[in-house]
Specification:
By secondary structure, the chain is of the alpha/beta class. Helices cover 43% and strands 19% of the residues. The protein is built from 16 helices and 18 strands. The strands form four sheets. Strands 11-12-13-10-9-14-15 form a seven-stranded parallel β-sheet, with helices on both faces. α16 links the parallel β14 and β15. α3 runs antiparallel to α6, α4 packs across α5 and α15 runs parallel beside α16. The longest helix has 26 residues. Bound molecules: nicotinamide-adenine-dinucleotide. The site of nicotinamide-adenine-dinucleotide (NAD) has 27 residues, from α8 and α9.
Length: 464
């Protein structure tokens, strides 16, 4: 007959064996599961382990993630480029390094304090538990790295549902991150996913009772899906960022900034300049300077029509074969030879043209000429479609800048710089690849992935 203590010991041993056997299963595949249910269960167990470590150790896990991803940055960038066929390898390296180095970690978790005669009250940031994160094809490793750093720093585990077209890259990133945490002495399975990411698996994840929060980074469909889930959800949706240029701007600089931002990774980033709105007085000079900065102008109406037929599908949406392709590739398909340095194609069109209205995600920048700043603001607001994502403006007139900022209400508003200054490249502030306009969290970071909890100590510890 066993004593009570022996019985408890036996139960603890069973539980530990169970946990260890599940952890060992992970070590083979570093967080990749056949079934979504298993991926969620493993993440759930790992999160229970994570919160046993102190914050200093959690920081060490994050440091190891950054190190491992840096060591694999070329691999991940190459894989994304080859698997998706979109973007530019060298820009993908820059994007990956950006999230590796500038995504905030544990230091982002701030406490709030109230102290007085009645004692001490603390508002603490606690983890949600398991977060289900849906990631896009345009940033298949970057979003996984960025979400993993922020979510784990906040004490959560993450189950990823990557885009099927970027499966290999996203899965490889999950494995690298898991391995790094294990090397740092942490639990395996803080990030998990499935071998075959499908919409069905995403559905299972969105409905699972052990998933406490959903974070969707992608187009309108996926944002709607998570917001209809009945769970706490963060939606980081599509953008169509206008770049407005007025007559007071430094036109040479504006032209360079617009081409730099609008051609970065072939215009895949959701923040990238998608259309240019310029006042008539400086429009010709802006175009002249854009051409000096490796833009190729198409003026002939028949060629503009040819470009339209090539890059838009029958429904008027961007043709997937051209999303994220190089400008010289698109021009060659039109039978136009150009220098390989050409980064973007520019075309002057009306504001109603599909190039302006649709989020093209390719280095084709439509230019809309307007009479004055009032019309510029009106057009910019209209073509941004109320996404409240990103807008860029080149101007030295504070009233003009204020007018657009007030009207357009975007999460990111960049003044006198390329769009990517808004995510910490040549602009102050941290980075994120999950910009939550629709649900209002803005540029997400570790603290976004926490629940606020109030801890009240009555009648003590106020030593003012
Ligand atoms: P997408 O919407 O096609 O796919 C994004 C993810 O959502 C994928 O994993 C996809 O499998 C999944 N998905 C799509 N519909 C779903 C549904 N009904 N249920 C569950 N999952 C679903 O987007 P994409 O082409 O991969 O990425 C480009 C889009 O993402 C652009 O619109 C871009 O502006 C946007 N984006 C936004 C941000 C941001 O931070 N706001 C960042 C990157 C990309």
């Amino acid at each position: 007959m066993k004593t009570e203590a022996q019985q408890i010991e036996q139960i603890v041993k069973w539980v530990m064996d169970e946990i260890i056997s599940k952890q060992e299963k992970v070590l083979d595949d570093y967080g990749i599961y056949n079934e979504m249910e298993d991926a969620i269960e493993a993440a759930w167990l790992a999160q229970k382990e994570l919160i046993k470590f102190n914050l200093d150790t959690r920081s060490k896990f994050i440091a190891e993630i950054r190190k491992a991803c840096s060591e694999n940055v070329e691999l991940l960038s190459r894989m994304a480029y080859e698997e998706t066929g979109m973007g530019r390898y060298e820009d993908k390296i820059k994007k990956n390094l950006l999230v590796i180095n500038k995504t905030p970690g544990v230091e982002d978790l701030k406490s709030e304090v109230f102290s007085g005669d009645d004692g001490l009250t603390l508002i603490e940031s606690s983890p949600y538990g398991v977060i289900g994160a849906i990631t896009p094809t345009t940033n298949p490793s970057e979003t996984v790295i960025c979400n993993a750093i922020g979510m784990i720093a906040a004490g959560n585990a993450v189950v990823f549902s990557p885009h099927p077209s970027a499966r290999k890259t996203s899965l490889q990133t999950v494995q690298i991150i898991n391995k790094a945490i294990i090397i740092a002495g942490g639990p395996g399975n803080l990030v998990t996913t499935v071998k075959n990411p499908t919409l069905e698996n995403a559905e299972i994840m969105m409905k699972h009772k052990k998933v406490n929060m959903l974070v969707a980074t992608g187009g309108p469909g996926v944002v709607k899906a998570v917001l209809s889930s009945g769970k706490k959800a963060i939606g980081a949706g599509a953008g169509n960022p206008p770049a407005v240029v007025d007559e007071t701007a430094d036109i040479e600089k504006a032209a360079k900034d617009i081409i730099d931002g609008g051609s970065f990774d072939n215009n895949l980033p959701c923040i990238a300049e998608k259309e240019v709105i310029v006042v008539d007085a400086v429009a010709d000079y802006l175009i002249f300077n854009m051409k000096k900065n490796n833009a190729f102008e198409i003026k002939d109406p028949s060629l503009i029509e040819k470009l339209e037929k090539l890059i838009l599908n029958e429904k008027g949406y961007p043709h997937k074969d051209f999303i994220g392709k190089n400008a010289d590739y698109i021009l060659k398909k039109m039978g136009i030879d150009c220098a390989p340095e050409i980064r973007a194609i520019i075309v002057e069109v009306s504001k109603n043209h599909p190039f302006v209205q649709k989020e093209l995600m390719m280095p084709v920048l439509p230019i809309v000429r307007v009479n004055d700043i009032h019309e510029a603001v009106q057009v910019a607001v209209e073509v941004e479609h109320g996404f409240k994502h990103t807008a860029i403006m080149h101007s030295k007139n504070v009233d003009h800048l204020t007018a657009l900022a007030k009207e357009i209400q975007t999460t990111i508003f960049v003044k006198n710089g390329p769009s990517y200054a808004g995510i910490g490249v040549g602009g102050e502030g941290y980075t994120t690849f999950t910009i939550a306009g629709p649900t209002g969290e803005g540029l997400t970071s570790a603290r976004t992935f926490t629940r606020k909890r109030r801890c009240v100590l009555v009648g003590g510890f106020s030593i003012k």
